[in-house]
Batch of 2 targets.
Target 1
Amino acid sequence: MQKRLKQVIYVSEKTDKSSDSLTDIYDISQKNNSESGISGCLLIGSDSYLQLLEGPDSEVKKLYSKIEMDSRHKKVKKLFEQHIEEKLFPSWSMKFAPFKNIEWGNKEFDAGKFQTISAAAALKVFKSIREMIG
């Protein structure tokens, strides 16, 4: 029997803007997420993160709880949560998306400031990324 899948989108402020911190996030995500059946996409802005997580319900809940406690994030805010039939990014254990190469039509978002994005706009961004990658 297939486990129930959950999708969560959250935004948070960065506490550490160094490239070492981003490398750590990427390396740990690649290893742990694939072992847990989690996939997703992380947008790295100038002062914030916007991330979509998807995978088995219990694993996504566990990872989101860790992120809320992670010192590299502050003001973690869940924008969207739903159960899904299939993943948007099934082959990405965690992908950093090149949002800077895309005109999103929102000045703050284009500048890498994600804190004010709505849930609907965030979901649209990730669906657009999915369409771009095929």
Note: The longest helix spans residues 19-36.
Target 2
Amino acid sequence: MIYLVTVALALALALSLRALWKQNRALHDLEQAARRGQPLLHDESPAAYLPAWAVLTEAVNRLITQNNSLQQQRSDQLAQLEATLGNLREAVLIVDGANYIHLANRALREIFPGARDLVNLRLELIVRSGPFLEYVRATREGTVLPREEFEIIDGDHTLWIEASGAPIPSPDGKSQWALFVIHDMTNQRKLERVRRDFGANASHELRTPLSIIKGYIETLVDGHQTMELADRDKFLRTIQRHSERLKSIIDDLLALSRLESATPGLKFAPLSLTGYYGELLEEYRNRPQAAGHTLTVNVPASIGLIEADGEKLAHVFGNLIENAFKYTPKGARIELGAAAAGDGDVECWVRDDGPGIPTADLPHIFERFYRVEKGRSRETGGTGLGLSIVKHIVQLHGGTVWAESGEGGGLTIRLRLPRRQKT
């Protein structure tokens, strides 16, 4: 009798343990199904025959299906937004309540090229600007804010953006997101700074000769009757010299204005550099400034033709040759050269063996009104605009220009020009 009771208890315990194992296995299967987001079939569960587990499985499957539907709906909505906003010229940004980015169209990725994959990143990792992040937070909370401009530090570069935003509900309707339209204002700010600096520099350069002319004229008006003839002649020559300088500055300003206009008026035609250089150098050899200088041409006969505006290039090379006259001592050698370059381009240069330019100044010499030696430049009649004009003409030809100066002296201005102009 005791034996039968023991067997019965052991059998009952075994059945209970098996049932418990099946329940644990069923619970594990449900957990894995929920993690995968896939409904669990009844016949997949070891406890499928248990009514309670069948009810639980049905409930979990419904939750999984509903969650999948919501996720798909959310993805469809974001895809629709991406399709609608992706090709807009304005940059569009959507962030959630935790500042994770859910939409960043192509225009926004162009503003921040260093972070191509913006979606699912925290906004703080992309936009390092406390004021903008505060603007995002306030907008998401429903505060009505006007369009604002922000300075963004991106590594060694500074960006300026203009943003306007509005709160939007999340796809599941349970939280508040925010949508922003952003404009890149960096180039506009740079142009404004250039325009501001240009205006200040131009005013300063014009004021100098005008002040001298005005002062000398006032002296002549007040004392011309008692002034010595030699002093009067000196005053008049000073007025003449500064009047010519004033005219040079105005002429260069007008030239820059024409070159920067929508119709700079270039006339391209086939040009032989060999003959062109020869004629140009022959003209400058006969000028008084060329006395004591040696002018040479270094152009291979096989250089061929290029398409260019000969009159505008004469302005370029003339400016470079005159600079070489001004800043090199008597006996210096000035060379005009050209050679074939890669990609079908032609590289031209004007080289002298004068004192050269300090390395720190080389990147700036094509800026408006920039002078390596300000006092000396004014003494020689320079306006500080000549090399800016050179740069503009070369760029209008689709080329580039740069300067090289050796440690032992000498300066080379190089121009790389396309052989054929794009139509």
Note: DSSP finds eleven helices and twelve strands in the chain.
